[in-house]
Structures
1.
Amino acid sequence: MLVVVEQFLNGLQFGLLLFLLAAGLTLVFGIMDFVNLAHGSLYMMGAYFAATFVAWTNSFILGVFMALGATLLLGVVLEFVALRHLYGRDHLDHVLATFGLILFFNDAVRLIWGPAGLVLPLPSWLTMPVQILPGVYYPAYRLSIIVVALLVAALLYWVVMRTRVGMLIRAGASNREMIGALGINIKLLFTLVFGLGAALAGLAGLMQAPILTVQIGMGENILILAFVIIVIGGIGSIRGAFLAAIFVGLIDTLGRAFLPDLLRMVLSSTAASTAAPALSSMLIYLLMAIVLVVRPEGLFPAAKR
Amino acid sequence: MKKAFWLAGIAAMALTQPATAGDTIKIGFVSTFSGPTAVIGNDMRNSFELALDHLGRKMGGKPVEVIYEDDGQKPDIGKQKTEKLVQSDKVDFIVGYIWSNVLLASLKTAVDSKTFLITANAGPSQLAGELCSPYVFSTSWQNDQTPQAMGTYMTQKGVKSVFLIGPNYAAGKDMLAGVKSTFKGEVKGEEYTVWPSQLDFSAELTKAKNSGAESIFVFYPGAAGVQFLNQYAQAGLKQTMPLYTAFTIDELSLPLQKDNAIGVPGAQEWVNDLPNEENKRFVADYRKKYTGKRPSFYGAQTYDAASLINSAVVAVKGDTSKKDEMKAAMQKATFKSVRGSFKFGNNHMPIQNFYLQDVVKDADGQLSLKTVATIVKDDQDRFHQKCPMK
Amino acid sequence: MKSLLNPRNAVVALVIAGLLLLPVYSAVSGNLFILTMFTRIVILALAAASLNLIMGYGGMMSFGHAAYLGIGGYAVGILAFEGIGSGFIQWPVALIASALFALVIGSLSLRTRGVYFIMITLAFAQMAYYVASALSRYGADDGLTIYKRSSFGPLVDLSNRTQFYYVCLACLFGGIYLIRRIVNSRFGLVLQGVRSNEQRMQAIGFNANRYRLVCFVISGTICGLSGALLANNTDFVSPAVMYWTRSGDLMVMVILGGMGSLFGPVIGTIVFLVLEELLSQVTEYWALIMGPLLLLIVLFARGGIMGLLGRFSRG
């Protein structure tokens, strides 16, 4: 039973990490109607910035905040220089242009930081496991990911639902032309939202850095998961992204944890061990296909345009 | 219109490199130079370049030309690059190959064209067995050998039970099979992870922890090894479940693994402190030429590959058309290997020692690998009888 | 505009002539690799052309087209592995398997629109990828080496480079001719009508989704043929050919060349792959140049290369 609790936490933690990445993506997609494949590159840049700044300043917290600022700035510059000229274009143009950006960022990182990847060391107070239930120890850092992501989710909810900026964002998601007509500086709003999305991607990247990786191309595999999540959740819906992210995290982790044993009941042991990892990765896509067949616009479609 | 001609002209020029044969020794080098595992490819290239320096950049009196190609860690790209080297550059030898799946995809091209292929790392079981070829030599090992040595060591040490974790591809399966073949204790469970995309091992570590096994064995080459050690330490398992490894801790991953790697044993056929003259020169000159870097076993195997090719070219005095004589020369393995004793079996796989290595702080306070003991002597892979060559 | 001698047609004619004469050049210059490389380009151009049929004319953005490359490839690979070497069996099986797959995923995916369609096709392709990764009998993640290419008796020998190249080229030209016929037929006109105004076509009494589905299946089938060719070309098939980045590459080739133009995908494929090869010879950091280049093309050359050439012709 305790194993199930622990695996459940693993899944929750992974799901919340995915939420951080997906939240920025769904904002940008929902409001500017912009498909940003380079979101994964911003995630990577967040991790590289954090590893660099933490090493410079010798302070985990300070480095992390500098990295967040740097990713936000990078997002704003990117939007200003290139991407704002693509709003209103076909989605395919977005795909091609931001695919080009992925290529560029990967090689730029290789040029600047080398191919080896970096490490983001944790402060000692986060390295050890803590006892959360009698007999259940859980890594402190993974717990901190859960806490930070929940805080960010609450903050986003507050900003989007309770503030003026949030009202504009929601208005933008449902009718882009209208808020322009209302005399809102829509360019500035878009730049801000893009910067916020970039910072969220950067946050996801640097949060995962100490457990997973700081390396070239780290954003690409996880980006597809983020897309899956925003599509399941309904594009533009933060709430949808939150629920879908947790779903996906749990399915992926629990699948990996329990599917091999289930398969062993019907297959030989070796065949089961080989087939299980592939099949458990498939579960997520199966989930997405089922959701879309039943609800073609995701679980929480944004208000009709 | 003009633009199109211009483009076509450039394309034609760049794709038509003059094929000059005879006056140089041409060597193709396929490895990974892009993506996160480029670190390995770079170490191999550095070592090969160093070996050429040591040879005066000549073999059998002729200048050596090396053409480096990046396989991007993808089997089909590796195959395409191999084709380019064979058909367009018409090389005499092809060296490299980190990944078993890239090698298996490329093998047919090299063998069909009767170009000598020297694998400096990948050693899938098929290559030692049914797919062995007169034109293929290995200066590394067969995949199973290193984990077999680890399994032997764990049995010697009296480990009662183990939980196995590895990536789900050819080498990963070979590795876990290797440990199982020599470990006499109980295998409490085995898990494969999606390769190379899966980097979160929390589900697997949780299972290992709850399996009741006394220890864990893993195989994670390159960056994945860094993540695994990180997550293993953070889960607090370092105190409760000792870790045994193959190809997970080396000079390339150590700067990223840092203290997490201290006290984690591994098995290897080469360690930087092996006490032979060739090795001392290799390690010292490598560190001199590439400041701040240390050679890894990947590099050592590649250095040996250069020495092996040189022995063949010298035997035919630079006339690379004498393939049979070159093959005979290489089979004798007369070159001086940086790992000391080195012979080829009937399948052109090495027969060699395996050592136990540990991570320690060296004189300058840097982490480095150190030989602790010799686990097995003159070990031959367990597939050589399946190879039709006698 | 109607003049035959515009830059667009000139480039197309040049490309066709170049592709036809390539083996001669390869034989004269002794450069075998250029033939190997262009065989791959021709095969992928066929895949891109099939994608163009649904993207450019049908308005369906499939992000899972590489799945058919894998299905066609595995049909050949698995049959060869099980001892059935005849191309007369292998290729039809490849086509039928691709068509069936397209029929199933098409009828499910066409319930969605826009980005959701992009993502659901991606989901199905990823599922196919993971199924292939789980086939331990056929090499799983490591893929399957094909020791003998499809045999067509005395008709044609696929192990002969030149013959194989011309087979691929014939398939490419045949595919493009078929697409041209489809696009200009009544079926094609309805399809394009559906793309530009679905409601109106529905109102006139056309079942839009049925037209879309037929188009989707034809496209998948053509791409399956490309997969069978690709497997023969590399003597190898692995799940990696179905990975989403490959589908992305195909999309880039189509958009780069120019969507909705017959030869656009061919030119896009040539430019993309040749550029990749050339830049990677010049510098290890080729993507540093390729990336911004793609961005510039999107920003300043709408409609891809063909669109650019078209603008020249209008002055």
Note: Residues 223 and 253 of chain B are 7 Å apart (CA to CA).
2.
Amino acid sequence: MNFYTDNDSLKFHLTHPEMKKIAALKERDFADHGQYEDAPANADEAIENYDRVLQLVGDIAGDVIAPNAEEVDHVGPHIDNNSVVYAPGTQQNYDVLKQSGLFGISMPRKYHGLNFPYVPFIMTTEIISRADTGFATIWSLQDCAETISSFADEAIKDKFLPRIYEGASCSMDLTEPDAGSDLQSVRLKATFDEANNCWRLNGVKRFITNGGADLHLVLARSEEGTNDGRGLSYFVYDRNDGGMTVRRLENKMGIKGSPTAELVFNNAPAYIVGERRLGLIKYVMTLMNDARLGVGSQSVGLCEAACREAEAYAAEREQFGQAIVNFPAVRDLLLAMRARTDAARTLLYETSRMVDTYKAYEAKGKLEGDERADYKRASRTADILTPLLKLSASEFANRNAYDCIQVHGGSGFMKEYACERLYRDARILSIYEGTSQLQVVAAMKGIANGAYIAKIEEYDARTIHSELEPLREMLREATENYKVLAEMANANAETDYDFRRMQTDVIASIIMGYLLIDDVNRQLGGDDSCKRSFMPSARYMAAFARAESVRSVAMAKAYSK
Amino acid sequence: MYKIVVLIKQVPDTQNVGPDAMNADGTVNRQALPAIFNPEDLKALEMALQVKEQNPGTEITVLTMGPDRAAAIIRDSLSRGADKGVIISDMRFAGSDTLATSYALACAIKKIGHYDMVFGGRQAIDGDTAQVGPQVAEKLNLPQITYAEKLVSLKGDTITLTRRLDNGVETVEATLPVLVTVTASADDCRYPHAHRLLKYAKAAPEIWNADAIDPEMERLGLKGSPTKVKKIDNVVLAHKDAQQVEPTEAALNELVAGLMKDHIIG
């Protein structure tokens, strides 16, 4: 089984018209060509390279990671002599990916990376999450390389980035017992040790994914006497240097193969990343946006897994003398699951393209002419889409996992079927890296300054095939309803029921509707890279957006003064 | 340190067959089946890669006889860690049975020159003869270890391997140079390495024609193939058709007599 080639909607997004531009930007007009044997000469070659590596990852996901998932869920990791020992299956997954040179695929070639943009990297996470969402968390953490690469000085890059390629595992140590959503209250202390010319970390971190990792990015209070975000700096800690104890591993509901640890730092030596005081306000904020993109991709992978488990079961299970897929009640569940998956995926890759575009411009430095405007467009769009993605994709993954069990009926409640694991694994997606409720807060700026409406108007102005008109009409109605909802929200600042979640959900579903219209439009224009039409999903999502807008207005009316 | 030749073959994927896999006359419809790397040859490549891993500087050449499109499995081998690839390809090889195939491969190995080990899969999934490896060993006058499962050790010019047999596992030792055929229960081949995958994505392997391997021309292709296929029947064996024979002198004599009576042997 190949989890890339058996799902040609990935190829569809990989070959999006904007990908050539992204490849050219990321490759700095193919400056590495000739210098490195695997560097592409042009955009087509770059995209072929992405495709080849995705095929490799698809093979490994389908043939190694997915078959290991059930045992990994049962066995889980444990602590042995202050080290976290993965379940054997997790270790095998890790070793195979390492042997294939796949860690650090986004890093510059200088550090043995493949210099891949986000779109293909995010696809690897989606593919791996479909196989095992818990393992996808471990895989995604290689993105710590991006933080080091973007903000650390050259000596730190040279010291640590090649190790990530060699398979050093990573973790991102932010949360503390009293600092979860509110990271400004981080207390773990960093003091400068003049005698040894290094920083020392002292304190406790909690709920650290992959906490036994070789390399840790640690958020710590470097400025004594401060108590807000401006006193925090960011450090890289090497497990080989000692001074850190893994106190315990959490016993979790899902993603059980992914170790979640409590760590005690005791005079642990560390290197500072970038500048003092920018730890939270700049570096973690950037990392957090990447992490939310990562959870978006984990969610889409889980959506896809749930779809496939349900579709396969519905085709095979017979009741009343026929396969249950023939019953409208079951078919409707499958239609909605597929629509959510396609919708979350198209938002995922739209967001990823924007992140790729603005990051490539940032790396370029000096921008000329249209580039400045394009940078701003991409950066602002990435900012407003990221919370919508994290919110919608993770909630859809939960809904798909729920419906997947529903399609299985009583069998789905038993431990024998994968859907039970998916249901438990999905639950964390709408919690970690910022809860759904925090995504609503993150979306508020775009709601208040009209950025979402401007984006929707931009999508609406595109030329589309006439058969898509009825769908666009539904989205226009939804947008009008949204405006009514927004007015009610403005007029009713103090109510017993907060309208902001509804506003964010409606905006998200409208945007996903437009993106799916774009996708169908590409297909109607002759793009056959995905054999399956996105039309049923586009229709469902447009109808869903309108229905959600009507429902939300009704709710808001009931709570308006 | 060591020089290794790995014999590989591109075969139709007979393990994932659709309804159109066979022609009406009982021959294989090659168009309907995707071409894949013969599974046991991949395992032979893995054994060679393990030798290379333990003995840095070892050079692995993969060799195949087949049409130009067999370049796909050469590139695949390079992406997994092989160093060089050669295809011997010529219309004059067409219609080769195992005797002519092993002759051509042996000529090509001689042309490659120095070698310490020749590895190959036990058999290919299209012909299932398991004859080519042993015949190459005969023609090169090499000791052969068939059904090899695990590389136990390689020290100087002494190789120790286990063989997976019906009734157990045998550990054998041989002096290099040696030919080894690797069985299905051996280690799976490692996946391609991402950098190599991209580096060799468009690599063009060396292609040698018949003249290049300096053969006796009459031993090639159809002319050099004594096997003549008269007729092919589709036979489906059910469990009840199978007979278990006791490993006694009397029972074996009875079996041979029965086979001779049915003109299956003799």
Note: The domain at 170-277 of chain A is CATH 2.40.110.10 (Butyryl-CoA Dehydrogenase, subunit A; domain 2).
